[in-house]
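User: structure tokens for this one?
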Amino acid sequence: MLVSLVLGLRVGSSLTTAVQEPSSPAGIPKQLLYRKRPHVANIKSQIKRNKTNEKAHERNKAVKSELKTHVRAARAAVATGDKAAAEAALKTAARKLDKAVSKGVIHQNQAANRKSAIAKQVAAL
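Assistant:
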């Protein structure tokens, strides 16, 4: 109350809220379009390490995406109520989860928890 009296402004008034104007046709705010450039290393080994990390990041993204697809397919098979399809989807999802663990993409316990949750749903059919 005291602040509004001193400043003469109300919270939520047009004077206190900033209006963001989109800078692109897609409506993306300017600060998201032009982020600060990340620091570029001068050391040769660090430049190589950055490249390696980027490759691993892309590979891990691909594995995680495939993993999500198979887990989603298993959950969809459970939702339809078809036990044979659900068991087949569980088998492929479990295989993909184990493969992701062996590649170091996800932790062993996370894979175990996911497999357990899907298997529990399949067993309930």
